[in-house]
């Protein structure tokens, strides 16, 4: 099982108005290991999705090893 521990959002360039870049960090665990994944995009949903997909893929890789 993979659990989300923490979800952080940060705007990297707040002076760019709508062109600002968003960074999302997701901390996850499987109960034994903990890892952090990152998504970066001007679109917060896309950045979140990228970080979430990487978290799940990494968790599955750990489970298979």
Structure description:
With 65 residues, this protein is an alpha+beta fold. It has one domain: Double Stranded RNA Binding Domain (2-Layer Sandwich). The protein is 32% helix and 38% strand. It has one helix and three strands. The protein has one helix spanning 44-64; strands spanning 3-11, 22-29, 34-41. It has a three-stranded antiparallel β-sheet with strand order 1-2-3. Strand 2 (22-29) and strand 3 form a beta hairpin. The longest helix has 21 residues, at 44-64. The chain is elongated. 11% of the residues are buried. The model has no long low-confidence stretch (mean pLDDT 93).
Query: Spatial order of the strands in the main sheet?
Result: 1-2-3
Helix count, per DSSP?
Answer: 1
> Can you write the helix and strand succession as a string?
EEEH
Using the coordinates above, name the CATH class: Alpha Beta
- The count of domains is 1
Mean pLDDT: 93
CATH topology, by name, is Double Stranded RNA Binding Domain
Low-confidence stretches: none
Roughly how many Å is the radius of gyration? 13 Å
Short characterization:
The chain contains 1 helix and 3 strands.
What are the SSEs and their pairings?
Elements: E1 3-11, E2 22-29, E3 34-41, H1 44-64
Antiparallel strand pairs: 1-2, 2-3
């Amino acid at each position: 099982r993979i659990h989300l521990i923490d979800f952080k959002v940060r705007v990297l360039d707040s002076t760019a108005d709508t062109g600002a870049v968003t960074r999302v960090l997701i901390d996850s665990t499987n109960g034994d290991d903990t890892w952090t994944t990152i998504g970066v995009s001007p679109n917060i949903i896309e950045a979140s999705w990228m970080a979430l997909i990487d978290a799940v893929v990494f968790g599955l890789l750990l489970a298979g090893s």
